[in-house]
Design goal:
Length: 300
């Protein structure tokens, strides 16, 4: 199982070296990340799902949801009570503690370690259709903005990863295979998603900004919730739900993924704890290579 992580480490290290020596220019992280998010990753999801029968494990997905909710609630209390954050910033803290990077890093890990992205599909849908709207409602309320139902309803349609996922799932459910003239180019484009995403991850680890006084402890605490508490809770809920070993591995590996970059995007958009969010993304991403490998080794 550890051998499955070697390509992940190698490509992440390659991206780190490229970023450290500015081999791809100062905007490489943004440009390559945009390519992955808008083009390669949707194509990869579409190609994989059109060849994969749709099947969701209710107990496993329920265990993931329960672990996520409990972790995010702990993160909210920690940011608010311990670190003195106001509700909006504490909401960002909750998201940093429990919102996993299910696309840019989750898909490469799922394909490389688990062999497919079936369980991750359910995780993506849960985060986009359940967690994200609740977070936006809390942030809008804290910012004094009016609740816009149309914005929440169309959120999945404005996310290219979700569009690729939905199109692939529809093809799979209807047992329709796209013709070769469509499937071929999309498969070729999707093949670039995993290596490009991992190189982008390495590039992001080279960014540095001055830390806000007292914030380092909060970042470490939120990272510990993300990388240790959430996978452990997922494992416990999975055992209680009597999830089968292969699904238990997928459940824990997905829960051990680092904080998603979307957390920083939301924090910056609302002006709430953006520095802490960015720090948690970087720290959890850097350390996740260890926790993911540990989860794979212990359960694989």
């Amino acid at each position: 199982m550890i051998a499955a992580f070697i390509p992940i480490w190698a490509l992440t290290a390659l991206g780190f070296v490229a970023g450290r020596f500015r081999l791809l220019g100062p905007e490489a992280d943004r440009v390559l990340g945009g390519f992955v998010f808008h083009l390669a990753m949707p194509a990869a999801l579409f190609s994989v799902l059109t060849r994969t029968p749709l099947r969701f494990s209710g107990p496993a997905l329920g265990a993931f949801a329960a672990g996520t909710v409990l972790t995010m609630a702990t993160g909210f209390v920690l940011s608010g009570r311990v670190f003195g954050r106001k509700p909006g910033a504490a909401t960002i803290g909750a998201m940093a503690a429990g919102y996993v990077n299910s696309s840019n890093l989750g898909i490469p890990v799922a394909i490389q370690v688990l062999g497919d992205a079936t369980f991750l599909t359910g995780v993506l849908l849960f985060q986009v259709l359940v967690v994200t709207p609740l977070v936006l409602i809390l942030l809008d309320r804290d910012a004094g903005r009016r609740l816009r139902p149309a914005r929440l309803a169309t959120l999945p349609l404005r996310n290219p990863v979700i569009l690729g996922l939905a199109a692939g799932a529809l093809c799979s459910a209807s047992h329709w295979r796209p013709p070769a003239v469509v499937a071929g180019p999309l498969a070729l484009l999707g093949a670039a998603a995993v290596p490009a995403a991992l190189v982008t991850l390495g590039l992001s680890l080279t960014e540095r900004r001055p830390a806000v006084p007292g914030e380092r402890t909060e970042v470490l605490a939120l990272s510990a919730l993300k990388l240790l508490a959430q996978p452990l809770l997922a494992y416990l809920f999975g055992v209680l739900a009597q999830v089968r070993p292969p699904e238990l591995l997928a459940l824990v590996v997905c829960a051990a993924l680092p904080t998603a970059q979307n957390v920083y995007i939301f924090a910056r958009e609302y002006g709430r704890a953006d520095s802490a969010a960015r720090g948690t993304v970087i720290v959890s991403t850097a350390l996740s290579m260890v926790t993911l490998a540990a989860a794979g080794w212990l359960l694989g």
